[in-house]
Amino acid sequence: MKLHVTDQAAKWYKEEFDAEKNDYFRLFVRYGFGGRIPGFSLGIGRDTPYSEYASTNAEGINFYIEEKDAWYFDEHNLTIQMNEQGLEPEFIYNPNEPK
């Protein structure tokens, strides 16, 4: 599983959350609309890593997913980018490339 956050999306999170360099943001599974799996979606918030499944750094901010949420991605990569209107980030799920 690969996690990618574009610089534009990372800048949005820095501004919205008043984040500083080397802050950690965890992507976590929650009940809700609009996710890859019906009935679930992703949330994001500041947290301290415990058992990282995937991680990346963009604009000095560390984004990660915990092992306990790995099931949600089920052989998919995640890219976080700004939507076409540039108003907020959007999550793009793509199947992993075959090995």
From TrEMBL:
It comes from Lentibacillus cibarius. InterPro entries: ATAP_core_dom, HesB-like_dom_sf. Residues 1-86 form the Core domain. This is Core domain-containing protein. Pfam families: Fe-S_biosyn. It comes from the Bacteria.
